[in-house]
């Protein structure tokens, strides 16, 4: 067992849109990621995702609405729902909780796809 300090873990990296694994719960990863600007429209065929805003604010764009997620709030995106996270503040820090099989860009492969995740 180990405890994880979220702030210290976030301070240990600077890359944007590159999730880092900080823990595992059953078949899911706990990840930390820093956002700046817009991500890409995508969806996940099988996996639900939870986004918990640790610092800053995030806009979760959906095809039929936009939802603002403030610091200390989270949103769960069900599998199959097309979405695009956007950092409202200059930089937003997010804790993700999602199955191990989840690829950060879902059904889209591009320069932001992170196939091999780093553990911190």
Summarize the structure.
With 120 residues, the chain is mainly β.
Structural class: mainly beta
Low-confidence runs of at least 5 consecutive residues: none
Count of runs of 4 or more consecutive helical residues:
1
Radius of gyration, taken over Cα atoms and rounded to an integer in Å: 13 Å
Backbone shape: globular
Q: How large a portion of the residues is in β-strands, by DSSP E?
A: 35-45%
Widest β-sheet, arrangement of strands: 6-3-8-2-1-9
Distance between the termini: 15 Å
Total strand segments = 9
What level of helicity do the residues show?
under 10%
Mean pLDDT: 91
Query: What are the secondary-structure elements, in order, as H or E?
Result: HEEEEEEEEE
The biggest sheet, with number of strands, parallel, antiparallel or mixed sense and barrel status, is:
6 strands, mixed
Oligomeric form of this entry?
Answer: single chain
